[in-house]
Amino acid sequence: MRPHRREAPPGRVQRKEVRTVAEDGLSKASILDAAEGALRKFGLAKTNMSDVARALGVSHAALYRHYENKAALRLAVVERWMGGVFEPLGAVLAEEAPPETKLYRWLSALREFKRERARQDPELFAMYAALVAETEGALEGHARLLAEQLAGIIEAGANSGAFVCKDARQAAAGVFYAFTRFHHAAHAAEWDTPESEAGFEAVWQLTLHGLGAGS
To answer: Is the per-residue pLDDT at 145 higher than 50?
Structure first.
């Protein structure tokens, strides 16, 4: 025999999940918008999931349907925020220019984007810097897309004879690491110094030499 389904005791109503109108219309984009606002208002250390939920007018639990915890939400905020770099970089890629010029402008655009983010949005930049420092492999997909764009420029240069290299991906990795000081968050304090300007140009000249440009 099948066991009888247990009935709720008289006078007790079985609990059902009740969603508000705000929760029904909740999206990841709206959560990220609210999270950015909370982070700017309260700072990285003091912002929690309840602050974001309160800003959206939803329950604390509603956020967990989209992000499993505060760390996941923080990563999503940073990924979207740093993803803005692909607009200026994409504009460089679309230019009709010699490979040497395109490579220089791409590296300059990456550097300037990071500098502007550090100056104009210090709260979120601090979160980005902390995430990179604390989490191995953080923003791995972001870095992979950057590497692919850089390899594409170098490969096009090699095909046209402007650069001399056997492996565009390997060359791109070398160039990316050579310029780490000018785009990695760990070096942000140095970005607005005269030494940084001179260093960028010096590394650029070494990069041209290493790629065999003009040889």
So the answer is: yes
Could you tell me which residues come within 8 angstroms of residue 84 by beta carbon, excluding any fewer than 6 positions away? 113, 117
Question: pLDDT of 158-191, one tens digit each?
Answer: 999 999 999 999 999 999 999 999 999 999 999 9
133, pLDDT greater than 90 = no
Please check whether residues 137 and 198 belong to one and the same domain: yes
Q: How confident is the model at residue 8 (pLDDT cuts 50, 70, 90)?
A: very low
89 and 110 in contact (C-beta within 8 Å)? yes
Same domain, 151 and 197: yes
Residue 14 per-residue DSSP state: -
For the chain, how many structural domains are there in total?
2
CB 70 within 8 A of CB 48: yes
**122-134 and 70-82 helices, crossing angle to 10°:** 120
The answer to whether the CB of 63 falls within 8 A of the CB of 52 is: yes
Which candidate, 14, 13, 39, places its Cα nearest to that of 121?
Answer: 39
CA distances 12 to 6, 7, 9, 15, 16, Å, are 13, 10, 6, 9, 12
Q: Measured between alpha carbons, how far is 114 from 96 in angstroms, rounded to an integer?
A: 24
In a domain, 26, yes or no: yes
Q: What is the pTM of this model?
A: 0.81
Q: Provide the domain limits for residue 168.
A: 81-210
Measured between alpha carbons, how far is 169 from 158 in angstroms, rounded to an integer? 12
Please classify residue 163 by burial: count the beta carbons closer than 10 Å to its beta carbon, then call 0-12 exposed, 13-18 middle and 19+ buried.
buried
